[in-house]
Amino acid sequence: MSSSAEVVVVGAGLAGLTCARALQSEGVGVRVLEAGDAVGGRIRTDEVDGFLLDRGFQLLNPAYPALRPHVDLDALGLQSFRAGLAIRSERSEPLLVMADPRREPQWIGQTMRSGKLHPAALGALARWAAPALGVDWVLRNDREDVSRGESMDRAGLHGPLRKVVDTFLSGVVLEDDGSTSTAFVHMLTRMFARGKPGLPERGMQALPEQLAAGLDTPVELGTEVVSVGPGRVETAGGEQITADLVVVATGAEAAAALTNRPTSPGKGITTHWYAVDEAPTDLALLVIDQRTAPGPVINTAVLSNAAPSYAPPGRHLVEASSLLRPGQEPVTDAEVAAQLAGIYGVPTDGWQLLRRDDIPYALPAQPAPLLVREALEVEPGLIMAGDHLDTGSIQGAMVSGQRAAEGYLHRRTGGMARQG
What we know:
- The structure is a single chain.
- The chain is an alpha+beta fold.
- It has helices at residues 14-24, 73-76, 108-112, 119-133, 148-155, 159-173, 182-194, 206-213, 252-259, 303-306, 333-344, 394-412, and strands spanning 2-10, 30-33, 45-48, 51-54, 79-80, 84-88, 96-99, 198-199, 225-229, 232-235, 240-248, 266-276, 286-289, 297-302, 316-324, 352-364, 377-379, 382-384.
- It folds into two domains: 2-44 and 205-264 and 369-412, FAD/NAD(P)-binding domain (3-Layer(bba) Sandwich), CATH 3.50.50; 74-199 and 266-364, Polyamine Oxidase, Chain A, domain 2 (Alpha-Beta Complex), CATH 3.90.660.
- A hairpin with a 2-residue loop joins strand 17 and strand 18 (382-384).
- Residues 416-420 have low confidence and may be disordered.
- Helix 1 (14-24) runs parallel beside helix 12 (394-412).
- Helix content is 29%, strand content 24%.
- The longest helix has 19 residues, at 394-412.
- It has twelve helices and 18 strands.
- Strands 1, 2, 9, 10, 11, 17 and 18 form a seven-stranded mixed beta sheet that branches. The chain has a four-stranded antiparallel beta sheet with strand order 14-15-12-16, with helices on both faces.
């Protein structure tokens, strides 16, 4: 069976859906093919015993600029975390709180008494973060970019505050060796300073579902693509599709297999999800462990404190995330439960483990020097899109999809297409 289309997008994650919406808005005919049973790519939400479980702990930062043209944040019903952290240390009972005094003034006293804010350390943190917070800051390729660990050393950021920052960032960039690009981490820092990350009322999958709902032609689910080439696609069902452009917007590993173009290695995460009858804290904050020998959990939270819709009435949902390094065996359930008992100061043997998610490729690696805005074209008529070609984030995925669309529109109209 043969058919034709103006553009075929392979993959209905954020990059593919953004690309399709941008093309559709300019009158381009688009078919979106997705091998899975739902849109979203790595962003999925399942209902388990009345709880909403995302596949791995994820948050949506409303400050991402790429969201504005395509997403109705109000319709998502975003439920935000508070702008701060809770900390378990050797000497703290209850949990210490460190929060942004501009947005959480009620915690100024606790923040100042945390013991982490030595003036020299605060000055070093300000020096390190200053480039990200400048008015004219722009994310770009920079040969002078170094790892976040090296840039913090250069700024003189050491001691307890450095440990807090390192632990927090390890849960954001999914590494604890300081190897991630400073430019990339500065981008994330800028976004954290401008927005409070949260969770949609119906789970993270509501984001790609909203993008897909805006398409004129429904995404073709359960349609596996077995080969691609310039202007051609073959599906597992035997359909041969010719097109002016093929956009491979799958995950990095599937994209590499289809295009034979190397992509970024991945970083993994394991997330445990627990149902509990009594919340171990009422804080709507991420909790990090700063004890001398904490364990594998890099962050945890009573998710239902920030996002009540994630748990049925009268119950609570706790997440705990651990790094899953390449070649490493995933953390055991017993290790995680034991560490959580120490973090929250309550027995965890009665907590119900709803599910664990072992995700070997949760984010692309972003070492220094950062390469953003990588070339998307594999060859004429065949391009790629995805956060592995931009920044490893929701922002990066959507920007890459927008870029893919704009490149086609520019060629199609002789350079006169409207830029979105």
